[in-house]
Design brief:
single chain, 285 residues, mainly alpha, Helix Hairpins, Four Helix Bundle (Hemerythrin (Met), subunit A), 2 domains, 0% strand, elongated
């Protein structure tokens, strides 16, 4: 948020905008392309990538409008409160999003597998034990489960460290130490990028050495959906922090008014917490 609150209107209402409908269309194209891609439809990859690129362009232009309004002194403290509530509800929706995937994982592991290993199914799959990662013979290609060492543990340390560096940057901004803020914010972004690099390497290892794929039964689908969507959120969080870093370098924000920084920090800490849940449930249990 800008520091120019003195002459701001009582409550700023922006004019009609094309960005919401364009963002919705971009997301629709992205998900349609993803659905087609996993079903081996030829136009799926192109549509998915085009949708992602279109969404990035829309977000860039949309955020640019909001930044110009903020720096133009149009945002009062009432707008600040609105942004805080909006970001809070957005993060809550993300909590529910991941809760759905964690719920699917719980249902599969604690209800479905024991039922399939019961006496009722012994005729169909006599050797099936119902253990997580074990599949009935002849149903899918054999694979090896992903363990917690070394990459997942390294990634856990990276994200936890990034939470610390981001907190240091926030305290520096509140103290008016802009150079220190920029340094530690940049360090946070680098840690996030290294995290994504390790995750990409982990996926290559899973496909080439463990034969663990998205088609590897319920284990493979839940593993890649949970970790993949989390990786997407890390990427989006890093982009948000990068935008904030550019604004810090341009002289935006004051020690009293910097919600853009705080909102991105809230999101990053949320991503950290989700990863801790993934690290325990997906890799250890």
């Amino acid at each position: 948020m800008s520091s120019q609150h003195g002459n701001a209107p009582y409550y700023f209402i922006p004019g009609p905008s094309r960005w919401p409908v364009l963002a919705g269309a971009s997301l629709l194209l992205t998900m349609a392309g993803a659905a087609a891609w996993v079903n081996s439809v030829s136009w799926g990859p192109v549509a998915n990538i085009a949708g992602i690129l279109a969404l990035l362009v829309v977000l860039y232009r949309w955020f640019g409008d909001a930044i110009r309004e903020s720096e133009g002194g149009l945002y009062s403290n009432r707008i600040d409160v609105s942004y805080r509530w909006s970001m809070s509800w957005f993060i809550f929706s993300e909590v529910m999003f991941f809760a759905g995937f964690f719920g699917a994982l719980f249902y599969a592991r604690t209800i479905t597998l024991p039922d399939l290993a019961s006496l009722d199914y012994k005729i169909l799959w006599p050797d099936f034990t119902g253990q997580w990662g074990n599949t009935p013979a002849g149903t899918i290609q054999p694979f090896t489960k992903m363990g917690p060492f070394p990459i997942p543990t390294i990634n856990t340390a990276l994200l936890l460290t990034s939470g610390v560096t981001l907190t240091i940057a926030h305290h520096a901004l509140r103290a008016g130490q802009r150079s220190k803020t920029a340094f530690w914010l940049f360090a946070t972004i680098v840690l996030g990028a290294v995290f994504m690099g390790f995750q990409a390497f982990e996926y290559i290892h899973a496909y080439t050495e463990l034969n663990l794929k998205l088609t590897s039964g319920i284990y493979g689908s839940t593993f890649f959906m949970l970790t993949g969507f989390h990786g997407f959120h890390v990427t989006m969080g890093a982009i948000m922090l990068a935008v904030v870093l550019v604004r810090v370098l341009k002289g935006h924000f004051t020690p009293e008014h910097h919600f853009a920084f705080e909102g991105a920090a809230w999101y990053w800490h949320f991503v950290d917490v989700v990863w801790l849940g993934l690290y325990v449930v997906v890799y250890w249990l």
